[in-house]
Amino acid sequence: MKTPLPRVTNHNALAAILILATGLAVPCWAAVSVTSPAYRADISGNTTIQISAPGATSATVKCWQSDTGLGHDTTVATVTLSGGNGSFVFPSASYPHGPLVIRITAGTDTCYFQAYNTGGVSWKEGLAAAPVPSPAQGMTVAFSDDFTGALSISRTGAGATYGSHTVGYKDFSGIKFQDYEGAVNPFLRKDSYLRIRADETNNSTGLICSVAQDKTGFKVRPPFYMECRFIAQRATGSWPAFWAPSIPNGSEEYAELDVIEAYGNLTQKRYTAGIHNWPSDSARAYSLILMDGSIPGTSAAEWSDTPHTYGCNVTATTTTFYLDNVAVWSTPTRSEWNSQDFYFLINYAFGGTSGWPVDLSRYGMQSDMYVDWVRVFVPPATTALPVGTFKIVAKHSGKCLDWRTGWNVVQYADAGLASQKWKTADLGGGQYSIQQETTIKSIQVEAASTADGASIIMKNWLAGNHQRWTGQPASNGYFRLINVNSGKAMEVAGSSTADGALLDQWTIGTGANQEFAFASFTIPVGTFKIVAKHSGKCLDWRTGWNVVQYADAGLATQKWKTADLGGGQYSIQQETTIKSIQVEAASTADGASIIMKNWLAGNHQRWTGQPASSGYFRLINVNSGKAMEVAGSSTADGALLDQWTVGTGANQEFAFQSP
What we know:
Mean pLDDT: 91
Number of strands: 49
Strand content: 35-45%
Number of domains: 4
Structural class: mainly beta
Shape: elongated
CATH architecture of the largest domain: Sandwich
CATH topology of the largest domain: Jelly Rolls
Largest sheet: 8 strands, antiparallel
């Protein structure tokens, strides 16, 4: 640890001495102070702020102001000083609600005056105002804390959301991390913020850790995205941080992901993002992240000017750091991290192992960090994919995955071809292979790429992660297919509906071009009653040739016989009349009636099955590509059946049950 600099306790007196002794009119580095209101005071409305800067004749006052974007810096006032003293009015109502830092500069010195605006404009506060960052699109929230309720912190972490020390009590701050239940509790909930107060006199500051000393609590395994929004003060020795260590397995090295480490002693507008592998630290890597607006999409506000959001996305191959949802640095993910659990810490450290001297006398021996929120995203829970031989249907186009020439996977309209048959196999651990039945080639991401837009192709099975897939539940009966290697979703490129459109991978999103159904080739064959899911009523025939629904009465008119026509196509025949279900006049229009006629072997009389919810199928007409349904979702006896664009309604789902 570096030797601390000598303590100075009365900076204005020192400034005056230096000016008298040297005859210089330039104030020393700590000449500016606020004499009223008190440091860290609550303010509202038009607040008069009195300042002192011995030897200076003027001071400039700046503060970051809200707008519809990232905000902007404003000059609040230019103050003429008389005898080094002056005042200005701060219009609190025009500035963001909550924690503020008002920067007062005279000569070469700046005082970072912390205040809490009890009025003002609510700007980007709270999780409700926080957009889902692009890397977390399609993910689910595994942990979030908006600090709107009672704080849950304990020394060991037992019985609480957070512990107040690092695991193993390996604390590193020069001002000591204290406990929520202790005599010098550094934690307070103020509106929807967690305030962590550093108090040099009482040797107290704070840290929260998402696991307890026994390593129970919130932890997450890659892939994940975590982020935190906070503001702290640029003060001598301040060292605010948001970071995530991992828990090693056996003798493995463990990670430390420093999403942000900021240092109050540095004059540059920047912070550090980095990684460590402990205990050797042989692969340490870091980047100095500029906060001067030079990174596209970021502002010129530094970490002490206004709250910022700091994030980290960990995938199987790459760890990327974010500032206000803008990627600012990436580094490879170490292989052992993929099997380790990570937890997070937020702290307001001072000095200590950083080696920086600590001196809060300028600010009344105290300094505050305000945490707005913290949250962690993970991919949705995987779900079991059906195992067997299927056609795989894209939701947005209704077309089937296909192979024609070369090795690219494409989409084409359902033609019942062998090239549209795909065989899934369960590899264990929620992972699956998908093999083209004719070529016996497996679907994979080309060249094991992790990039958006990488092609989906077929190759011989090599058991690589780029050939392995997991399923995420999407809309009813559909799945997202996630590549194990890249963590990205298979999709029809550009949401094309054209025959021959290529498939690629892309960051998980919400588009229907990333949703696929596994259409069963095995509608049950035999004699059944066919039951509509939404009404619980049976397909029936009473008069004329319209197919209708009625409550189950065990009648012969409610018995239907299915026959396998090959190629995944089926006929459905009314047992009494020996008439076959078809779309009237071979129409392809929504709303066309479902009727019965003599069998003519036309495509309008042929049906395929798409698995829907458990035990139910959607019945898709081969000619139109549309789904049989109970018209208007009616639950009435006698309601007609028609066809409609394939959707997610229960009126398009039917079960084949023993009559």
